[in-house]
Design a protein that fits this description.
The complex is a heterodimer.
Chain A: E1 13-15, E2 18-22, E3 28-33, H1 38-49, E4 59-61, E5 66-71, E6 74-78, E7 90-94, E8 99-105, H2 108-111, E9 127-132, E10 135-141, E11 145-151, H3 155-173
Antiparallel strand pairs in A: 1-2, 2-8, 3-6, 3-7, 4-5, 5-6, 8-11, 9-10, 10-11
Chain B: E1 16-20, E2 23-27, H1 33-39, E3 46-47, E4 54-55, E5 68-71, E6 78-82, E7 92-96, H2 110-113, H3 122-125, H4 131-145, E8 160-172, H5 176-187, E9 192-195, E10 211-212, E11 215-216, H6 217-230, E12 234-237, E13 240-246, E14 250-256, E15 270-282, E16 286-288, E17 301-303, H7 304-312, E18 321-326, H8 330-340, E19 344-349, E20 361-364, E21 367-372, E22 379-383, E23 389-393, E24 396-400, E25 403-405, E26 418-420, E27 425-427, E28 436-438, H9 448-463, E29 493-495, E30 500-501, H10 502-510, H11 516-523, H12 536-547, H13 550-554, H14 568-572, E31 584-585, H15 589-594, E32 597-602, E33 605-611, H16 619-632, E34 635-638, E35 645-648, H17 652-659, E36 672-678, E37 684-694, E38 697-702, H18 707-721, E39 728-731, E40 736-742, H19 746-749, E41 758-763, E42 766-771, E43 780-786, H20 790-803, E44 807-808, H21 811-821, H22 850-853, E45 862-868, E46 880-882, E47 891-901, E48 906-913, E49 923-928, E50 933-940, H23 950-953
Helix pairs in contact in B: 5-6, 5-9, 7-8, 10-11, 10-12, 16-21
The chains are: A alpha+beta, B alpha+beta.
């Protein structure tokens, strides 16, 4: 059996009250309903994982799964999923290895060095599709911090950018 | 000593040592370099740009044109720092600029004597003969003499941050108007950002002896700032200049975090902010104007408001005897403040009708016509209302020429300000920047009461809240009678920074450079670090007088960000050097690093170029070995950077058939086909392999470099061209690690599904997708596993490969292998190549680009192979192909890829050549016009080994 080589190295990073850590990803599936199949897909998912697919900009979770809208007609679903139940209704593509997921707590000021959306105004459960300077990411507000979904190949650069921003915030505070 | 015994907003209990031009001085917390130097009796602070005339400080703020200094040592050195802005810190070392050998004795002051020959635009009219002298002599000389300030040319050791901020209200400027606006919005709970370029907030309140709300204005300001800083919803940002207004309510801002601290501070030196505001209030105040009169540029001559700032904020009286020269009521205020500080004052008021003033010598209807004192003002010549002239001894002259509202930010989106005759000033145009409104002096309302009122009311209206109560303050009208220049003999300065005088503007007018934009470029007035803040209006008035058009018709030049200079480092932030762009790493990145890979950047990707073995010193040694290894045993290379686009749905086949020139509809499940896609203009966009996994499931592998563009293209087609097709497109590029295993012994490691076949297979306990494709021309396959297993897969394969005499190889070797086999990359399909050029047939079916590809003009140079003949052994990528003598008209094609083939023992190349397919066996010359290298080549078919593909079909 081949070994699982993780996504990130060098985590967690803790600086004062700021913490950047990895979030282990469950199964991740990209669901894209075919023409006219949206309602059937929604029903099947409700039965399968107890989740109604959310509108754009929202992260929704049930006991077994979570999901957010990713692009027109496409959702990312987190959690074990019987894709057989969707056969013929939707494209169901395994994307469990395509992403890295980070959690940043106490670090909104650092994240605002890198992300242009209004982080302070994001209520818990809101999702923003934006960029970490020049890396495309999705930001999910969790209430006590933010989770970031980013493409796997950018993992090391993303952590470097965020850690640099965290250190910059600490260094800035020294001047007060 | 010019420091007054009492008063000022400085901390007299502490002292700070610093040096200027090697001389030691003492300052207090709250001093700028300018105020501390003035306090120590130093009036000479710089030399003017062109004529190297001795100069002192003109202002007390960021609009300073004269007192530009260098601060810091070595790599930290920063030129063109305004002494009026630079806070003093312990150990600060400042130097004057633009003089040699010293400030007191500058040899280039000789240029002042030559001034009749150095007027505006002189360089357009001289240096014309002899022609050769320009390049060899004049240009280098002018280049050395020109410029303002010198950089260290060493890498900048400071760090900079960039950041975003969001708010309901951005208040630009923390004078009385801005403070009231911030207070109104802050107390109402709105998210407020209050930014001021000064380190001490309060604006003019800190520079005047005016009361607000029954207490000193400076005290009132401090109270308000304290309250604002205590509110969690208010962000108070001193030392922060709003640099520009941009679309969508976004403002640029430069926060000077550590410019007032020693170089050893670990903080980022500056932060460049993008502030997104629902509303913004421009409360940045106004800049006072000088008056143009002969020799109005001597050290000791300054703006009246600056003098009052030095008196009240810094407790400095720069001289004992003063002339105050005013065209408005502020001359009186200045005179009173000077008298209170113990100075002698002569008040020269250009207004004949000015109300009489008894506290000092008052001369209504008089003018200043000359001054004396080269290294520092000594005396002033006056012309009285009756025409008599007299010289008056004075060490200081304060000019009160009226005020220019700071309109700049409001004009950054292309608007021009509007002239108001009643206040002799340009004011902002409403709605010039959506969401931005100007208040107070920035809007032409110069009294303290007007500023307080407007700040509160505009903030209240914007946010729908109550304005805070107005404290009592003075409400004096401006009372200005326009007066721009004294008519007398001698040069009268308009732009102190660029050394532009009234004579230069008159010259520009004579030369027909009469529009203000032409005048600016011809005279250089309004350029450089101060962007004409104290110069523009005076010059426009002179030009308006000459053209007879008046100020309103003359207008202003265009205002553009930044409002004041911004260091490039701040705009770069952390995105410098190795961090300029992010890196994309393959799943096997760590594995390759552990195996001695050399690296190549391909776009953002880091890819192994080769794997150095023991004893190898050149890249060719490694590359040649790896090529042989693949051709004779087996090679392993990671190709995870390839695009992997999944297409699903009942119309996926139909969709692909339209996208590709190559027929795809009838591709059988379990089969793979190589195809090309055209752009709508008929040229080739990219090539790709397409694998059909099932009836309604395809995986496409476009090239690494083009996969983002291809994905965009597919999305555009699916969403906009053919929305009726039932197809879903998913970019799964990051999901899969992909490794190529090729060579005559590859089958001993893995028996794949066969050439151009696909299969799902279990490999080492993991479900893998196995593609029977080859980019090297050797048998084998590409194995795709979920990315988490990529590194482990490489290890598993390598172990078995080593046992067979094989190993890892990088893209250098891969490139050689594919050229040997005649496989193309974007070196061949560079965007100008059609499928005809490649010799591909045109199918019957429809496809994107079909119409345009049918144009006769699209048949261009054809793909051929090339090998050197004769003694010349080298082929050079990019070299031109010619017959006979090389000339631009004679070029028939070029070499697209050239490599040394260890398999064949000589260089080989692919190229594009006119009529190439008919010329196999003929000769052509390759010429590299840059190096002069040329060689004779033989034209061959574009494939060098195994032309029939027998190895692959074995």
């Amino acid at each position: 059996m081949l070994e699982d080589n993780g996504v990130f190295t060098g985590l967690p990073v803790e600086l004062g009250a700021m913490k950047l850590e990895e979030v282990a990803l469950p199964e991740v599936t990209l669901i894209a309903p075919f023409k006219g199949q949206m309602m059937l897909v929604a029903d099947a998912l409700k039965q399968n994982i107890g989740l109604i697919l959310p509108p754009a900009g929202q992260y929704r979770a049930s006991a077994r799964a979570g999901a957010y809208w990713r692009s027109p007609g496409q959702w990312l679903v987190f959690g074990a999923l019987d894709t057989g139940a969707l056969k013929g209704m939707a494209a169901a593509v395994d994307m469990s290895d395509a992403f890295g997921r980070l959690r940043l707590t106490g670090g909104r000021e650092a994240l605002a060095r890198l992300v242009e959306v209004d982080l302070e105004a994001m209520p818990p459960g809101q999702v923003a599709h934006t960029a970490l300077v020049d890396i495309g990411i999705s930001v999910i507000a969790t209430g006590d911090g933010f989770e970031l979904m980013l493409p796997r190949s950018y993992a090391a650069s993303a952590v470097r950018r965020i850690e640099t921003a965290m250190r910059g915030v600490v260094a800035r505070r020294l001047v007060e | 000593m010019s420091r007054l015994p009492n008063g000022g907003l400085i901390d007299r209990t502490r002292t700070i040592p610093f040096s200027f031009d090697g001389q030691s001085h003492i300052a207090h917390p709250g001093d700028t370099v300018a105020s501390a130097l003035l306090a120590d009796g130093v009036r000479l602070m710089g030399r003017s740009f062109k004529y190297h005339r001795p100069r002192g400080v003109l202002t007390a703020g960021s609009e300073e044109p004269n007192a530009l200094i260098e601060v810091g040592q070595g790599a930290h050195k920063l030129p063109n720092t305004r002494a009026t802005v630079q806070e003093v810190f312990a150990g600060l070392q400042a130097q004057s600029q633009n003089r040699w050998p010293s400030l007191r004795f500058d040899l280039r002051a000789g240029l002042d004597v030559l001034h009749p020959f150095l007027g505006a635009g002189f360089y357009y009219k001289t240096f014309l003969w002899p022609r050769s002298f320009w390049h060899r002599f004049w240009e280098p000389l002018i280049r050395r003499a020109a410029g303002l300030g010198r950089i260290s040319a060493l890498p900048d050791p400071a760090s900079y941050d960039k950041a975003w901020k969001h708010c309901d209200l951005l208040v630009i400027g923390a004078g009385p108007a801005g403070l009231m606006a911030a207070l109104t919005a802050g107390r109402a709970g709105a998210r407020v950002v209050l930014a001021d370029e000064d380190f001490m907030l309060g604006g003019r309140l800190n520079g005047e002896a005016l009361d607000v709300g029954g207490m000193a204005g400076a005290d009132w300001a401090r109270q308000v700032v304290d309250e604002l800083q205590s509110l969690p919803n208010v962000s108070v940002m001193p030392r922060t200049t709003i640099t520009g207004a941009y679309d969508g309510g976004t403002y640029g801002a430069l926060e000077r975090v550590a410019d007032h601290l020693p170089d050893t501070s670990p903080a980022p030196r500056q932060i460049f902010w993008r502030i997104v505001a629902r509303y913004a209030i421009l409360a940045g105040g106004a800049h006072e104007r000088p008056i143009a009169f002969p020799n109005n540029d001597r050290p000791g001559i300054m703006l009246a408001s600056a003098l009052r700032s030095y008196l009240h904020r810094f407790a400095v009286l720069p001289a004992r005897r003063w002339v105050v020269f005013a065209n408005n009521g502020e001359g009186v205020r200045t005179a009173h403040d000077l008298l209170k500080a113990g100075a002698e004052v002569t008040l020269v008021d250009t207004r004949k009708e000015a109300p009489p003033e008894t506290t000092c010598r008052h001369l209504p209807g008089a003018e200043v016509v000359n001054t004396r004192g080269r290294q520092g003002l000594k005396a002033v010549e006056l012309r009285l209302a009756n025409g008599d002239t007299e010289w008056v001894e004075a060490g200081g002259l304060a000019m009160a020429g009226g005020w220019n509202p700071g309109v700049h930010i409001s004009c950054h989106m292309g608007a021009r300000p509007v002239w108001r005759e009643d206040i002799s000033a340009f004011v902002p145009v409403e709605n010039a920047v959506p969401g931005l409104e100007a208040v107070g002096a920035a809007n032409g309302d110069f009294s303290t009461h007007a500023a307080l009122k407007a700040g509160a009311e505009v903030a209240a209206e914007a946010l729908g809240v109550k304005p805070v109560d107005l404290p009592k303050a003075e409400d004096a009208p401006i009372e200005i009678t326009p007066f721009w220049q004294v008519k007398a003999k001698g040069r009268a300065w308009l732009d102190f920074q660029n050394d532009v005088t009234v004579k230069d503007v008159e010259l520009a007018h004579r030369e027909n450079m009469q529009s203000v934009e032409h005048m600016k470029r011809y005279t250089t007035l309004g350029m450089a670090t101060d962007q004409g803040k104290t110069a523009n209006t005076g010059a426009m008035a002179v030009m308006a007088g000459l053209t007879g058009q008046g100020m309103a018709a003359t207008g202003t030049t265009m205002f553009r960000p930044p409002f004041s200079p911004v260091q490039i480092g701040a705009l770069a932030g952390r995105q410098q050097g190795a961090n300029f762009k992010p890196e994309r790493l393959m799943p096997g990145d760590g594995f390759a690093r552990a195996h001695n890979a050399n690296w190549l950047e391909m776009g953002l990707w880091q890819r192994p170029s080769l794997f150095r073995a023991e004893g190898e010193r050149t890249w060719r040694q490694s590359c040649d070995r790896e090529v042989k290894m693949v051709r004779e045993a087996v090679g392993i290379t990671e190709v995870s950077t390839l695009g992997k686009i999944e297409l699903l749905g009942q119309d996926a086949a139909r969709f692909l058939d339209r996208i590709f020139l190559t027929p795809m509809k009838k591709l059988k499940p379990g089969h793979i086909r190589y195809g090309v896609m055209l752009r709508t203009d008929g040229f080739i966009m990219d090539d790709a392999t397409v694998a059909r996994l099932a009836e309604d499931h395809f995986v496409m592998h476009p090239t690494t470099g083009a996969s983002a563009d291809v994905l965009s293209h597919l999305e555009f087609c699916a969403q906009l061209r053919w929305p009726e097709l039932d197809v879903q497109i998913v970019d799964a590029s990051e999901q899969w690690a992909q490794v190529a295993v090729h060579g005559p012994k590859a089958a001993e490691i893995l028996r794949g599904p066969g050439f151009m076949r696909f299969a799902n297979m279990e490999i080492a306990g993991v479900m893998a997708r196995v593609y029977g494709v080859s980019y090297s021309g050797e048998p084998g396959c590409e194995i795709a596993v979920p990315a988490r297993y990529g590194a482990a897969l490489l290890g598993w394969l390598l172990e078995q490969a080593k046992a067979l005499g094989g190993g890892l190889y990088g893209i250098e070797a891969l490139n050689v292998l594919r050229v040997e086999k005649g496989y193309i990359t974007h070196a061949e399909i560079d965007g100008r190549v059609s499928h005809h050029d490649l010799g591909l047939p045109t199918p019957e079916k429809d496809f994107i680009g079909r119409q345009m590809a049918a144009r006769k003009g699209l048949r261009g140079p054809e793909l051929v192979g090339l090998k050197p003949v004769g003694s010349a052994k080298a082929l050079i990528g990019g070299a031109l192909l010619v017959e006979g003598e090389f000339s631009a008209d004679n070029v028939q094609g070029h070499i697209t890829s050239a490599v040394f083939s260890p398999t064949l023992g000589h260089m080989i190349a692919l190229g594009l050549l006119q009529n190439g397919r008919a010329r196999h066996g003929e000769r052509v010359r390759m010429v590299d016009a840059m190096s002069g290298i040329s060689a004779v080549c033989e034209i061959t078919p574009p494939v060098f080994i195994d032309p029939k593909g027998e190895r692959l079909h074995a």
